[in-house]
Amino acid sequence: MKSEFIPVIAPVGAGDEGETYNINADLVAGAVASSLSARKLVLLTDTEGVLDKEGALISSLKADEARVLIGEGTIVGGMIPKVNCCLNALARGVRKAHIIDGRAPHAILLEILTKVGVGTEIVG
Hints:
The protein is α/β, with parallel strands linked by helices and 124 residues long.
Protein backbone atom coordinates (compact mmCIF):
# COMPACT_ATOMS: atom_id res chain seq x y z
CA MET A 1 0.00 0.00 0.00
CA LYS A 2 2.86 2.37 0.73
CA SER A 3 4.09 1.83 -2.82
CA GLU A 4 0.58 2.40 -4.20
CA PHE A 5 0.74 -1.07 -5.73
CA ILE A 6 -2.16 -3.51 -5.84
CA PRO A 7 -1.00 -7.12 -6.14
CA VAL A 8 -3.00 -9.56 -8.23
CA ILE A 9 -2.64 -13.06 -6.87
CA ALA A 10 -3.59 -15.91 -9.18
CA PRO A 11 -4.95 -18.99 -7.41
CA VAL A 12 -2.57 -21.34 -9.18
CA GLY A 13 -0.15 -23.69 -7.47
CA ALA A 14 2.85 -25.58 -8.84
CA GLY A 15 3.75 -29.20 -8.21
CA ASP A 16 7.17 -30.79 -7.85
CA GLU A 17 7.20 -31.77 -11.53
CA GLY A 18 6.17 -28.32 -12.77
CA GLU A 19 2.49 -29.21 -13.15
CA THR A 20 -0.06 -26.52 -12.34
CA TYR A 21 -2.99 -26.81 -9.99
CA ASN A 22 -6.05 -24.60 -9.89
CA ILE A 23 -6.64 -23.68 -6.25
CA ASN A 24 -10.05 -22.47 -5.06
CA ALA A 25 -9.85 -18.68 -5.36
CA ASP A 26 -12.04 -18.16 -2.29
CA LEU A 27 -9.62 -20.14 -0.13
CA VAL A 28 -6.70 -18.13 -1.48
CA ALA A 29 -8.51 -14.82 -0.88
CA GLY A 30 -9.38 -15.80 2.69
CA ALA A 31 -5.83 -16.88 3.46
CA VAL A 32 -4.38 -13.67 2.01
CA ALA A 33 -6.88 -11.51 3.91
CA SER A 34 -6.06 -13.32 7.14
CA SER A 35 -2.31 -13.06 6.66
CA LEU A 36 -2.60 -9.31 5.96
CA SER A 37 -4.87 -8.77 8.99
CA ALA A 38 -7.42 -7.23 6.64
CA ARG A 39 -10.45 -5.49 8.09
CA LYS A 40 -12.74 -6.82 5.36
CA LEU A 41 -12.85 -9.73 2.96
CA VAL A 42 -15.12 -9.30 -0.05
CA LEU A 43 -15.97 -12.29 -2.24
CA LEU A 44 -17.62 -11.56 -5.57
CA THR A 45 -19.86 -14.26 -6.97
CA ASP A 46 -22.71 -14.70 -9.45
CA THR A 47 -25.50 -14.82 -6.89
CA GLU A 48 -26.93 -12.20 -4.54
CA GLY A 49 -25.25 -13.66 -1.46
CA VAL A 50 -26.42 -16.18 1.13
CA LEU A 51 -30.06 -17.08 0.63
CA ASP A 52 -32.59 -18.47 3.09
CA LYS A 53 -34.73 -21.55 2.39
CA GLU A 54 -37.26 -19.40 0.50
CA GLY A 55 -34.55 -17.91 -1.70
CA ALA A 56 -34.52 -14.49 -0.04
CA LEU A 57 -31.22 -12.72 0.57
CA ILE A 58 -29.87 -12.80 4.12
CA SER A 59 -28.18 -9.42 4.47
CA SER A 60 -26.30 -10.10 7.70
CA LEU A 61 -25.21 -13.21 9.57
CA LYS A 62 -23.20 -13.93 12.67
CA ALA A 63 -20.62 -16.69 12.34
CA ASP A 64 -22.54 -19.08 14.59
CA GLU A 65 -25.73 -18.48 12.57
CA ALA A 66 -23.87 -19.30 9.36
CA ARG A 67 -22.65 -22.58 10.84
CA VAL A 68 -26.23 -23.50 11.79
CA LEU A 69 -27.46 -22.72 8.25
CA ILE A 70 -24.79 -24.99 6.80
CA GLY A 71 -25.67 -27.76 9.24
CA GLU A 72 -29.39 -27.61 8.53
CA GLY A 73 -28.89 -27.55 4.75
CA THR A 74 -29.96 -23.97 4.06
CA ILE A 75 -26.52 -23.05 2.75
CA VAL A 76 -25.68 -25.60 0.05
CA GLY A 77 -23.52 -26.28 -3.00
CA GLY A 78 -20.89 -23.76 -4.01
CA MET A 79 -21.94 -21.36 -1.27
CA ILE A 80 -20.58 -23.70 1.43
CA PRO A 81 -16.90 -23.14 0.54
CA LYS A 82 -17.49 -19.39 0.26
CA VAL A 83 -19.10 -19.20 3.70
CA ASN A 84 -16.45 -21.48 5.20
CA CYS A 85 -13.77 -19.24 3.70
CA CYS A 86 -15.42 -16.26 5.42
CA LEU A 87 -15.70 -18.13 8.71
CA ASN A 88 -12.03 -19.13 8.59
CA ALA A 89 -10.98 -15.55 7.82
CA LEU A 90 -13.10 -14.23 10.71
CA ALA A 91 -11.57 -16.80 13.06
CA ARG A 92 -8.12 -15.54 12.02
CA GLY A 93 -8.78 -11.88 12.71
CA VAL A 94 -10.61 -10.46 9.69
CA ARG A 95 -13.39 -8.25 11.12
CA LYS A 96 -16.08 -8.65 8.45
CA ALA A 97 -16.60 -10.78 5.38
CA HIS A 98 -18.97 -10.04 2.53
CA ILE A 99 -20.37 -12.25 -0.22
CA ILE A 100 -21.83 -10.12 -2.99
CA ASP A 101 -23.05 -10.38 -6.56
CA GLY A 102 -20.24 -9.19 -8.80
CA ARG A 103 -22.70 -8.77 -11.69
CA ALA A 104 -24.55 -5.93 -9.93
CA PRO A 105 -23.42 -2.42 -10.87
CA HIS A 106 -21.43 -0.73 -8.09
CA ALA A 107 -21.87 -3.81 -5.87
CA ILE A 108 -18.74 -3.23 -3.80
CA LEU A 109 -19.57 0.42 -3.13
CA LEU A 110 -23.16 -0.43 -2.21
CA GLU A 111 -22.10 -3.23 0.11
CA ILE A 112 -19.38 -1.28 1.88
CA LEU A 113 -20.90 2.20 2.01
CA THR A 114 -24.59 1.57 2.77
CA LYS A 115 -26.22 0.31 5.96
CA VAL A 116 -28.05 -2.66 4.45
CA GLY A 117 -25.71 -3.42 1.53
CA VAL A 118 -26.50 -5.59 -1.43
CA GLY A 119 -25.07 -8.95 -0.41
CA THR A 120 -24.44 -10.89 2.76
CA GLU A 121 -22.22 -9.59 5.54
CA ILE A 122 -20.80 -12.17 7.93
CA VAL A 123 -19.39 -11.06 11.28
CA GLY A 124 -17.76 -12.89 14.18
